[in-house]
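Job type: complex structure
Entries:
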Amino acid sequence: MSEIQVNRRLLSENDQAAALLREKFGREGTLVVNLISSPGSGKTTLLEATVAAMSRTYRLAAIEGDIATERDADRLRRHGIPARQIITGGACHLDARLVRNELQKGGLDEADILFIENVGNLVCPTSYDLGEDFKVALLSVAEGDDKPFKYPGIFSRAAAAIITKIDLLPHVDFDVEAVRAQVNTLSPDGHFLLTSARTGEGVDGWCRLLAEKLNAKRKAADRADAPGN
Amino acid sequence: MSEIQVNRRLLSENDQAAALLREKFGREGTLVVNLISSPGSGKTTLLEATVAAMSRTYRLAAIEGDIATERDADRLRRHGIPARQIITGGACHLDARLVRNELQKGGLDEADILFIENVGNLVCPTSYDLGEDFKVALLSVAEGDDKPFKYPGIFSRAAAAIITKIDLLPHVDFDVEAVRAQVNTLSPDGHFLLTSARTGEGVDGWCRLLAEKLNAKRKAADRADAPGN
């Protein structure tokens, strides 16, 4: 079997596992968000701020993907939500079976929102469906304003692009409007959010988006369950 | 063939192509540096500063790896050195055959130093030998001080770790000594450099390291050519 054939088979097996996960998350009414970015764009830090803002109102849980170390799950557990770490060894992305196996260990059920923080990587996680409701691409202003066009795969598939660390804008060359235009080209219907977990700016808008997506998912499920359907 | 078998075969084919490249670079006396980091750590910006500092004394050339866009090679050509862009399509790393094919197109010969800027990724490029003399891992202070232990593969294989964007240190939480300790654990003989391409700080030390490595390579080649060998 060639590399391409093996990749196709793996992706198709992954899609089957992801479909089962999506069904399960649908039954349980859990909104699932797959966060993807370079290392160090601030995924865990944004989640810490999200937990601080939302955990009194919603049941939150997290799965953290990393090549090595339990550090990120530890950080979120310290914020009082259940979190499990998947250590991939060498692999540069999570896949649906890793997520399923982690969920089977228990402790993450009955969440309103499950965050899946992927391995820090703008390329490999892009093709792997994890049964999520939507993908989010994060980009810190320190990474430069050419990145959406350099990594079009993730920015075209993400339902939301979150620009992080905007408190650093005075100290770096980063043209927000140029990035907004790139993201709009790649994902015309996507959300575009500016945040700083350090100052808290924009975190409310992100939390509002999550709450809206959760409500929309539950309303759609209620309609499907209504008599006559 | 399983995924693992395919990967092993690919790596072994890559190693053969890399060995031939290394022989060629040795014959031609070209020092070859493989730069690896996350997207947006400042590889191209460091190379621009390096070209500004060294191109009057040394013949420099670059191969730029990216998923999409010619942008990085354009930036270096504007600085007056020959540069070729390899667009990998979806692949998250360069490999030795891509580099060989690009060199065969001509225009990069007779360089004293050839920089190979890998695709922005801290994981995938790690295992692929490109025939380089050494790998360099870059990490910007905006990415956080936990990264060497989270991405041990590259930081243990790199002969030099370069901390970039140190002009941002007053604005971010980044413990330089903690990072130095992680890098020392992973690569006890490695170089550890602090740089800011924006202010120029530390760029001289990096250029000095390159000059030393080039001289050492040429002296070793002269000794091998000397009568009696």
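Summary: The first strand of chain B starts at residue 31 and ends at 36. The beta strands of chain B are 31-36, 60-66, 83-87, 113-117, 134-140, 160-164, 191-194.
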